[in-house]
Queue: 4 jobs
Job 1
Amino acid sequence: MDKGFLLRRPTRPGGAEPRPIERRIGIDYDTAWARRYPVRLARAMLLDDVTRPIVRLGASPAVHGLEHLEPLQGPLIVAANHASHLDTMLLLTCLPARIRHHAVVGAAADYFFDRRWKAALWAFSLGAIPMERVKVNRRSAELAASLIGDGWSLVIFPEGGRSPDGWGQEFKGGAAYLAKRCGVPVVPVHMKGTRAVAPKGSHRIRPGETEVRFGDPLWPSSSEDARRFAQRIEGAVALLADEAETNWWSARRRAAAGTTPSFRGPEASPWRRAWMLPASADPSARHPKEHEELPWPPEARPR
């Protein structure tokens, strides 16, 4: 008997194809462990005792519209604009505890779940689940729907990624599709000032003030498909953005007249879009008195 038999690397018969290695990352990462009670308890302590004080210190959020959440019972979908990595932590810590501690976050599978250590970090700290950015993936949709069916709320950013220039992007249909499929309301949210506090591409936090606005819950109607409902959700966030730059009454008057400023900004060259960006969304505008204050809405600004 060959004494080295047990020490040699095994061989594969000729003509046999090797079995593909399963990479359980990305959309295939299993997050079930992060929803077990001991992990949920640890995450609740992390959010309440560590993350929340840090966010309060660095972002000083002013929260509006929490009364819209009070009558809601059971799971819901929270759909917000996305301009900074700060958004998720800020939004979670501003949600009421009964929702915050029983919510999962839809996170980009190709970014937050591309490494096992990153996947484990975000699944633990934020309750994140992997989702496709640009389309409704069957696997992620089934997971999200089953969790909503089990009573979990879902925090999602329908733009699919952070804004590249401070203006909003088109809302994808994931939140609308899940709301129609599961029969749950969507709460629109607008966050102001997060891009200035934590700019895209920067690893530094610049302490500043932020605002978080919760809007009226939206229910999908039987007469609209997911695409039309996604447009209605985007319009609700645009209304909140207008309110953040002006006031409640002016924003509602424009909404009633159908003249709410575009959430996505003007169709113009990059320099013009940057020039028309509200100061609150411009990381370089750290001292408003030293910069020209441009009027809002964009249509009122000089051409």
Job 2
Amino acid sequence: MAGALEGIRVLDLSRILAGPWSTQNLADLGADVIKIEKPHSGDDTRSWGPPFVDKGDGSGHDAAYFFCANRNKRSLTLDFTQEAGLAILLKIVEQADVLVENYKVGGLKKYGLDYATLAKINPQLIYCSITGFGQDGPYAERPGYDALIQAMGGLMSITGEPDGSDGGGPQKVGVAVVDILTGLYATNAILAALYHRHQSQQGQYIDIALLDVQVAALVNQAGNFLLGGKVPERMGSAHPSIVPYQPFACKDGYVMLAIGNDVQFANFCTAAGVPELVADSRFTTNAARVQNRVDCIAQIAPLLLQQTIDAWCALAEKNNFPCGPINTIDRVFDDPQVQSRGMQVAMQSSVYGELDLVANPMRLSATPVSYRYAPPELGQDTDAILAEYGVNQLDREVLKKAGII
């Protein structure tokens, strides 16, 4: 079946993660994504290793990092800082539907690749800029990286163990979550702009900032401050508004107990053999349990230590309360639910052979995502793409000798 975005051509001038994450989503949905890369070096993440992906002969080549965000794309090496390279890029722009870039503010203007200039060439172009701090404001010129934005945007102030406790202090999240969320917001904005263009025949400019995304992603923590007036603090893995909702030690490891309502708490207490806790006025409602958090956890923690991880998970399923193991990454991909949902996908690469990648989680019944191309080797599609735009073989050889492609 054809993808939802079949026929949409995306020009990907982004590197690292936020931009490539967005364009990979578009590619998985069927768009033709042309990834523009520097000759000889390419996307920065190609060198962000180890680990490097083995070509089968024991030699490392591209870093595993690159493979997480560049599936279903075609790689075109092109030096658009040179006149001949810029001319080719402008020719592609004329037929592009979407352009995604994450250069510094104003960085592409000197080449005539800013939105105002390109909109004159292609009025229907949707142009998405991704930066650390946005196109205006006092920080606009600053470079922005995920961990920096996690710090400045408040996430690290609420992540980690409380000050004064073992291991206390601010921590970043274990993946580049701001980059990922920024890529998803960019994808949403691009899809909205495509729908608007379908109605109006007009393109538009999209300004996405990592800091904006991080502030928006504070969700309930921001709401608690704005509406309640109290600055949230680090609580480890506990929840500021729900109790019990945190990891607990068991006989053989840890489980995450995620009690979301009073019925689930009663079910847990029954399974744990302490139904009397439900009648205790300190614990009857979630609001009461939050107010008496320390006492509640003190009652529950010793109970969890009496059983194994598997025993608690079985009790949770039988008694209808949320509880699960805290899995390492290898256990995640061994999990029967993850396997049943097909979250690991094998793709065939002409360079690397079979590659195991993480699947796209979107499930569309009529226009499912597809896995057409493995992440490309640097410049592997250059000749084919240039031929599509009328650059003959002789001219391509000249461009190669000049280092433009």
Job 3
Amino acid sequence: MQAKPLVSIVTPSYNQARFLEATMRSVLEQDYENIEYIVIDGGSDDGSRKIIEKYADRLTYWVSEPDKGQTDAINKGFAQAKGEILAWLNSDDTYEPGAITEAAAFLQAHPEIGLVYGDANFIDEHGRVIGQFPAAQTDLARLRRGYVHIPQQAAFWRAELWQQIGPLDPSFYFAMDYDLWVRLARFGKVYYHPRPWANFRLHSDAKTIMDDDRCWPEMLRVHYRDGGGKLAPIVLKYYLRRLLAPLVTWRRRRRVKQAAEEDHV
């Protein structure tokens, strides 16, 4: 029987105490035995450190100190990682039970796949499901056209690919995951495995709510860096998204607000 590969999970965090414990427990309570868990906190002052210390004996590595933001924290975490399979889980998201077992087994059974991802629910601040991320099969060509469809929370990839193309580009605030998917897809096959692996939390302070307008300009930076033209589908999607951005943001805020209002009914 093949030994189960070591899976390294990194959680970057900064002042997310109200969600951090749920995130950490969703990793630590997985049924997969061979996990190393790394938490990189940016020097939070909201009680996050006490939560991390509560589980310190179950962590492979952790630190709480100022950093240069989320991308820097993720890179710091992966610099400590020893696993054959890598993933990161933000400190307001969670894994579904059994996710890591399924992802590791899939990659072990399919050595030709470099990146596998499953489905992710949208959840509110209380963990209630309020929608589903539109995950779908993609590849390098479709990624270059702006068809991403990869929920970062439910994505797992091989460390050997990270060693070829990592680390994350620290100049990206929002689209560092899109940049990573494009680079990974150049060297390995990308596969969508339709299984519920993660939960993507929408709340009033989330980047997806507060700063979504920064995503597409950063995606265009990747496009032009890689030689893309001005009439490419991703450029046209960018301009369409600019027109629809107020509606998209309003719908997300409304979804979060409705969930909050239900708490007071």
Job 4
Amino acid sequence: MTFAARARPIGTLAGVSTPIVSATPPANDPTFENVWDELVWRGLVHVSTDPEALRAALGDGPITYYCGFDPTAPSLHLGNLVQLLLMRRLQLAGHRPLGLVGGSTGLVGDPRPTAERTLNTRETVAEWVAKLRAQVERFLDFGGENPARMVNNLDWTEPLSAIDFLREIGKHFRVGTMLKKDAVAARLNSDAGISYTEFSYQILQSLDYLELHRQYGCVLQTGGSDQWGNLTSGTDLIHRVEGRSVHAIGTPLITNSDGTKFGKSEGNAIWLDADMCSPYRMYQFWLNTDDADVIDRLKVFTFLSRADIEEYAHQVESEPFRRAAQKRLALEVTATVHGEGAAASVIAASDALFGRGDLSALDADVLRTALEELPHAEVSLETTVVQALTATGLVASQSEGRRAIAQGGVTLDGIRIDDEGAVVTGALPGGVSVLRRGKKTLAGVFVRG
């Protein structure tokens, strides 16, 4: 089993020096008597069904549990990473995971707060199912005494006729109760309203839990707390149909200390797919974590022990300028998602770009991808450094560029430029150059041959 994905190495421009160390292997903290206690300490339980009964079940185990991921995009994101790591923690405690990728629910889509989802084609959904399945599989162990299993809800919903669905499943749901669900209520109060397609989503998700309970004895579903209405619809359905009590855990929605949404920005989500969000950007995102948030992030997104995290909390309090907790967080999550090789390359590139290593020794792909995240420009071979400074936006005009050179504040590929007639060479691997103005303002130059 490979816990972390393999990916091409990548660099960051964070400007920090972090020793290259191995990321912490996935393991639960043995100082906790029950995995439930560790989940609570890590802040992973926002809401749950009967906590005492659930703690007992996790302590007596093993139990079978599941989490579902809908293919509404070609990649999972940081919000999904919370669930993936929760699944791994439960598996490390001896429990049996079912990773569900929603081939049928992905064709419908759960209700968004303000507007109807665009329905994707069957071909697109099938393609995204395959991509998400591969991502989920990287975080679970498919060997040993409690191997993971992947399932697709299209397998049991596609053969079900509309009449059978209404008679066998729909009859157990009361419209009044469904209308009270937060996601549904929000849409009913919006100008967009809600279609029957999205209104029925909670029935489909409940059917998943029932089917997995029947097939595999599944007794726990996990999901974000914003899915709590759907989670409890499933527990209620099993209770009505099978006469049995099962469980659900709703994890908190991760937000920053200032209340802003975590891991998302307009058109710039932090995806787990390296082609959609480079490992550089991933690393940089974590490295920029605020002091007020970093300890909570270490609890949720790393396998560091309680003792280690408490030590980082002390360092944040006593020596925040060192940003030791942020560096460790960035290393751990980047290694978890993209592999230790990528994390090591991030650190090596950072050192080289900020004068603590050899730029010419970097892999061409590492360097180019890092520079693409900076201000950058494509120029011809005879372009002067002054022109390149202007093209990349490091200066507002060529006259300002000449003054910066005269003041000794410009370097090209780590070498100070004294001659305003000097030209960029693209001498670094991949035909690029690195421009620096001052100590920390960098730009990439891609030189056309």
